[in-house]
Specification:
single chain, alpha+beta, ten-stranded mixed sheet, binds 2-OXO-4-methylpentanoic acid
């Protein structure tokens, strides 16, 4: 069905899976809603977006995404307030970032009108999947894949832009310990580290498995040249609190311009928290841990929100972080989630209502 006010073709699922879902016991990204949004790129243009029942795709085995990883994605969340209103958080930033990622991967830009109309129609269909209450959300995964058949190593002429949704609670189910990387790198100057390129994540799996064997859940990536500076965790940007000063690395072409990261920076300024955005050396953090000045490390990201780190490892040494009553992680999480769930004033105009 296509209506004149709505540039999205909608085919509803005949039945819903929702009754079979235990919303109090969700592992991240395992359950998906009843519908998905798809928009094809062919003959030099994005075609009319479609919403259809969630299900497998049929693709040629030679599609370029399978061979050259020409794929980018985004992570967003929808929240429901106490009056059943649905909110997105800074969705314009996700829209801009997916096209920035696409540009770096030679993927054609996606039109803004399709991004918003497709997502909003999808969320309206899936509104029952968005549960109220802090910690509950619907994780939204927009992504683009190169679908053109053929293994010549050149940008595809055909793509699919899609959105799938998954009800979410916490990303990490337990405590998070990180290892500072000494050998492997996530990104290099001039590379694709700033982009949400699918391959950035695949490249982390092997070193992360090695770190897991040593009792860490994540790696904090260091700069590829010297491994002396701490950059990001791959699923999260990273903040350090030394004394009462908050420090985080500046974004560059190796580090993702995280939306939660920049929201924390804005909140720190609003609440006069001493913040430095500058290179953070491994040495200063190890020294601060040894002298007791290192009070916190926490990660930030859409999926994880704000995730305290309980300890870290470097060069065979392990350090535990103190448990604080008045942590910055807790402070920012409270401020941020109250804005996201429409329980606090939205001074920065970050909320976007889906109507
Ligand atoms: C997100 O936070 O949305 C991300 O994209 C990280 C992902 C690996 C879960």
């Amino acid at each position: 069905m296509k209506t004149s006010t709505n540039p999205v073709d909608i085919q509803k699922a005949p039945t819903s899976k929702i009754e079979n879902v235990d919303f109090n016991n969700l592992a991240f990204g395992q359950v998906f809603t009843d519908h998905m949004m798809i928009c094809d790129y062919k003959d030099g243009a994005w075609q009319t977006p479609k919403i259809q029942p969630y299900g497998p795709l049929e693709m040629d085995p030679s599609a370029k995404v399978f061979h050259y990883g020409q794929a980018v994605f985004e992570g967003m969340k929808a929240f429901k307030d106490e009056d059943d209103q649905i909110w997105l958080f800074r969705p314009e930033d996700n829209f801009e970032r997916i096209n920035k990622s696409s540009e770096r991967l030679a993927i054609p830009a996606f039109p803004k009108e399709f991004f918003f109309s497709g997502m909003e129609e999808l969320l309206k269909l899936e509104k029952d999947w968005i549960k109220k209450g802090f910690g509950n959300s619907l994780y939204i995964r927009p992504f683009v894949i190169a679908t053109e058949a053929g293994v010549s190593a050149a940008p595809a002429k055909e793509y699919k832009f899609m959105i799938i949704c998954s009800p979410a609670q916490a990303y990490y189910s337990g405590e998070v310990r990180v290892q500072f990387s000494e050998k492997y790198s996530r990104a290099a100057d001039g590379g694709v580290g700033f982009a949400k390129a699918a391959g950035n994540y695949a490249a982390q799996f092997y070193p992360t498995n090695l770190a897991k064997d040593e009792g860490f859940q994540q790696i904090i990536w260091t700069d590829a040249n010297s491994h002396e500076y701490l950059e990001e965790a791959g699923t999260m940007n990273i903040f350090f609190r030394v004394g009462d000063k908050l420090i985080t690395a500046p974004t560059n072409d190796r580090i993702l311009d995280g939306i939660t990261r920049k929201s924390i920076i804005a909140l720190a300024k609003e609440f006069n928290i001493d913040l430095e955005v500058r290179r953070v050396s491994v040495k200063e953090i190890v020294d601060a841990a040894k002298s007791g000045e290192l009070k916190e490390i926490f990660g930030s990201g859409t999926a994880t929100v704000i995730n305290p780190i309980v300890g870290f490892g470097h060069a065979g040494q392990k350090f535990d972080l103190p448990k604080l009553e008045d942590s910055y992680a807790g402070f920012f999480k409270d401020k941020l989630t109250k804005i996201q769930y429409n329980q606090a004033e939205d001074k920065f105009n970050w909320r976007y209502q889906v109507k």
